[in-house]
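Work Package 3 committed the consortium to producing structural models of liganded targets before the mid-term review. Because experimental data for this complex are still outstanding, the team generated a predictive model from sequence and the ligand definition alone, so that downstream docking and mutagenesis planning could proceed in parallel. The input record is reproduced below exactly as it was submitted to the modelling pipeline, together with the SMILES string for nicotinamide-adenine-dinucleotide.
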Amino acid sequence: MAKSEEIKYSVSPAGEKFALPVKEDFKKEMVRLEALTKKAKTENQEIVVVMGVGFVGAVMAAIVADTKDEKEKNSKFVIGYQRPSTRSYWKIPMLNKGISPIKAEDPEVNQLIERCVRKSKTLTATFNSDVLSLADCVIVDVQCDYIKNALGDMRDGEADMAALEASLKTIGEKIPEDCLVLIETTVAPGTTEFVAWPILKKEFVRRGIKKVPLLAHSFERVMPGREYVSSIRDFWRVCSGCNTEARVRVGKFLHEVLNTKDYPLTVMDRPIESETTKIVENSYRATILAFLNEWSLFAERNGVDLIKVINAIKMRPTHSNMIFPGPGVGGYCLPKDGGLGYWAYRHILGFEDGDSVFQITPTAIDINDTRSLHVAELTRDALRNMSRYIAGSQVLVCGASYRQDVGDTRYSGSEIVVRKLTEMGADLRVHDPYVDHWYELESQDTYPAPGLSWKRFFRNQEHLTELRIEKDLEKSLKSVDALILAVPHEQYLGLNPDDIVKWSGGPIAVIDCFGILPDDKIRRYFELGCEVKALGRGHIQRIKKEVQKG
Ligand SMILES: NC(=O)c1ccc[n+]([C@@H]2O[C@H](COP(=O)([O-])OP(=O)(O)OC[C@H]3O[C@@H](n4cnc5c(N)ncnc54)[C@H](O)[C@@H]3O)[C@@H](O)[C@H]2O)c1
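The resulting structure, written out as tokens with the ligand in place, is given here.
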């Protein structure tokens, strides 16, 4: 038994403490896993290990564990593997209780995990990497980040593949020779063939295995929100393998676990094509969002409402996917994926002319990363028009997440808004019906990793660790000077200007970042003595003049 002072804990977001396993727990755990997999084998179930049970891995693990054969019998036994670190270990005991380690707006996430853990008993989780020796298939869902060293200069960044490379080494050391390894992580193009495969091959040679490792790639298109599960299971997939055997195996596996009948699978010749599909898909999205930034500024300065312009354009079916960028883009993928491609061109594929080849993708990401700084300018200007200073003003930001009606705060534009206004001396409050803890602020000294918070690009950020998400909108509006409508959550769409002014105790500055306010509400705010500004909505000045004349 370990001495009490040696015991370390991992704390879940809800505050539940779990003691990290000690040496003797690893042996016991392996006995448990061997018994479970032996039983699964007798039931003809394939053993699948999912490495990394985060946003993607936890749900993918449950989808695989829910797979049935033609006779409606469960055909896979899934073991989620997670390193027993203080930061992540808690996900294992949570999963083993049948509770989702991720908070999702989609009720199917919890139902699916509970059903697979408790009822069909086809899903478990472990901290012991020796589980890899029992696997028929390993799915890699660990993160691969792109670290930016300056705000608004993506070219200066670098891919952080440490977690991925460590995972692959462990896999190569432990898997049986016929095991299929499927990388789902979004990677820099070339990673599967030129980084991952050599790592696996090296370990196989070291172990005296003659067979070539079976390695495949198929990226995730998961969308946080109410369709979380569907966005993995009932959605089009792309895949490829490093050789014919791997390509055939991955195709078969994905046909079994996903709804490829309604959402056909695309099989590419080589993994670099599957990897590039993901990077181009997200760079395309990032680019069409960034492109509207310049027209958003044009609109603000020339009496044009860009929201109405976009809606008019979208009437053409060929242009129907145009979207207003709001206060930046955010989310885990769009801000980084183009960076992985730009970086790979030089550091994996060996080309030196990346800066002349890549003109648009880096610029798009830089524009998206810095667009929200303009929200701080608008807030400053609105307050100035009311003869107030930003320094010392009380500002309420409505919406901390990166997208409407989800609780995902990763790289949200709102974070930059809060940080910039804090730097300028404002006192910030934040309301969000979907977010309980804003980890990017509360844990800014360690999250996403020590020294990597956006905090480092701004001054006076220390006390933001104390900022807590407000849940009572009426209360959080009391005595504010400015209200920033940052995200079009459903709750904010129906807000009534008369209530807002009553709850805040008088006229305030209102900043609309997402085309949330219809013209009649903008007019009403002006009638109530408020000042209104908005991203991309220059017609507001016209409404203001009309109210002043009236
Ligand atoms: N979240 C999304 O919306 C989304 C959408 C599409 C694609 N993706 C891609 O999916 C991948 C995973 O993203 P995510 O959102 O699930 O990330 P995440 O950070 O939520 O999860 C990664 C998990 O891997 C674990 N991990 C790290 N190193 C490990 C190791 N050596 N062994 C075992 N576990 C390890 C981490 O502790 C964590 O639990 C990324 O490449 C991402 O770009 C994510």
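Reviewers should note the following from the model. The two ends are 80 Å apart (CA to CA). These observations will guide the Year 2 experiments.
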